[in-house]
Design goal:
Elements lengths: L3 E3 L3 H11 L5 H19 L5 E7 L4 E7 L3 E7 L3 H8 L6 E2 L1 E6 L6 E7 L8 E5 L2 E2 L3 H12 L4 E9 L1 H10 L5 E6 L2 E2 L5 E2 L5 H6 L3
Parallel strand pairs: 1-11, 4-5, 4-6, 4-8, 8-10, 9-10, 10-11
Antiparallel strand pairs: 2-3, 6-7, 12-13
Helix pairs in contact: 1-2, 2-3
The protein binds 1-O-pyrophosphono-5-O-phosphono-alpha-D-ribofuranose.
1-O-pyrophosphono-5-O-phosphono-alpha-D-ribofuranose binds next to strand 4, strand 6, strand 9, helix 4 and helix 6.
């Protein structure tokens, strides 16, 4: 079974509280998603490989490190877009692939509407990002799509996960580690995460 890491950090707990509050306007919500994503990125990138790099300090030569992996961040649109900045701020040379996916409002099944993935996906360490893991349908479908395109080292990061989504992802993709800020209580009858933070996409982009 894939690993599940619930990141325990005071800044993240504070950020989640801001995100959960219905009083938070979309500008503050968007900024906080980005900040929280950076904390998740810090944890999710623990396994990134390094290689030695020799450099000159102002005084002498010494050996340090550089990132050896090709890194690709793949947001599941729309809401995943809000987490991209938090991930690429640590690795500016990272490439970004896009997957457009939307839940059917009646069946809750994911429907894909866009895909633009860098050709280097098969050699890359891939971070799939989406603030919400509800039924797990979108994340599972996205990861399957990336595997079909050749991806072999995939990580998934979200802000809020439902137990049902974690179970689905671990069952469908036992090789994909999951990093989240919290595991919430349950999904309700409309497949919304409770207590959750509402519809992350709408709150990031101000569409409600
Ligand atoms: C939300 C969310 C995830 C998905 C989670 O997207 O951002 O992508 O639902 O649900 P699941 O785990 O049950 O698949 P939504 O369909 O609201 O689209 P949006 O990001 O464009 O708002």
């Amino acid at each position: 079974m894939s690993s599940l890491t619930v990141v325990d950090h005071p800044l993240l707990k504070r950020d989640l509280t801001i995100l959960r509050s219905r009083e938070t306007p979309h500008g503050a919500f968007r900024k906080t998603v980005s900040d929280a994503a950076a904390i998740l990125a810090y944890e999710a990138m623990q396994e990134v490989d390094l290689k030695d790099k020799t450099i000159e300090t102002p005084l002498e030569s010494t050996t340090g490190y550089e990132i050896a992996d090709e890194v690709i961040v793949v947001p599941i649109m729309r809401a995943g877009l809000g987490m991209v900045d938090g991930f690429v701020r640590f690795i500016p040379e990272a490439r970004v692939g896009h997957l457009g996916m939307q839940r059917d409002e009646e069946t809750y099944d994911p429907v894909d509407y866009y895909s633009n993935i860098p050709d280097t996906i098969s050699e890359a360490r891939v971070f799939v990002v989406d603030p919400m893991l509800a039924t797990g349908g979108s994340a599972s479908f996205a990861i399957e799509h990336l595997k079909q395109r050749g991806a072999e080292r995939i990580h998934f990061a979200c802000l809020v996960a439902a137990p049902e989504g974690i179970e689905r992802l671990q069952s469908d993709h036992s090789d994909v580690p999951i990093v989240t800020a919290t595991v919430d209580r349950e999904l309700d009858d409309n497949a919304f995460i409770r207590p959750g933070l509402g519809d992350a996409g709408d709150r990031i982009f101000g569409t409600t």
